[in-house]
Amino acid sequence: MKKLWAPWRMEYIQDSVIPGGKECIFCIGNNSANDRERLILHRGETAFVMMNKYPYNNGHLLIAPYRHIADFNGLTDEEFLEIQQLLGVCIEAMKGCMHPHGFNIGMNLGQVAGAGVEDHIHYHILPRWSGDTNFLPVFGEVKVISEALEATYDKLKEQLVKLMQEAG
Ligand SMILES: [Zn+2]
């Protein structure tokens, strides 16, 4: 297989934006009825976790505050703390069902840094495997990716629910 991956290369970590779409994908509203289809994994108090619909690899997660803010330093203490906690929970959840060998965690601030949605800040979490042989081609079969996304969603959701219960 052609080598598609170089770690953390900006062109592959760019946020995915629906061309022409005006709605902010991170302004998710209060209706959680379609969270599975929307790939929203967890709703916290001030921030939430969703899967990237156009993942860099299987298990590519995004964490964002509910508030539509662009400024990293505009996060409240509560948001900042919860986002960090969610990062930790996501790492545990992935360890529990995907067994990655490592993680990339980061944020693209500004278009020049690869942010597709630059008005609403969000973290990326990528599980990594040595050799990255488990990776799905980003620009490969859309169908394969969407099926894989749902399967991964269910696995991660189960882990997250368990971890949240344990955390009380
Ligand atoms: Zn937004």
Task: Give descriptors for this structure.
HIT family, subunit A; 5-stranded antiparallel β-sheet; 15% strand; globular; binds zinc ion
CATH fold title: HIT family, subunit A
- Portion in helices: 25-40%
Strands side by side in the biggest sheet = 1-2-3-5-4
- Per DSSP, the total helix count is 3
Nearest-angstrom radius of gyration? Answer: 15 Å
Structural category = alpha+beta
Topology, number of strands:
5
CATH architect. name: 2-Layer Sandwich
The hetero molecules present are: zinc ion
Distance between the termini: 45 Å
- Give the count of structural domains: 1
Order of helices and strands: HEEEHEEH
Assign the CATH superfamily.
Answer: HIT-like
- Tell me the β content: 15-25%
The CATH class is Alpha Beta
What shape does the CA trace take?
Answer: globular
Q: Regions with pLDDT < 50 over 5+ consecutive residues? A: 1-14, 134-143
Q: What is the mean pLDDT?
A: 81
Largest sheet: 5 strands, antiparallel
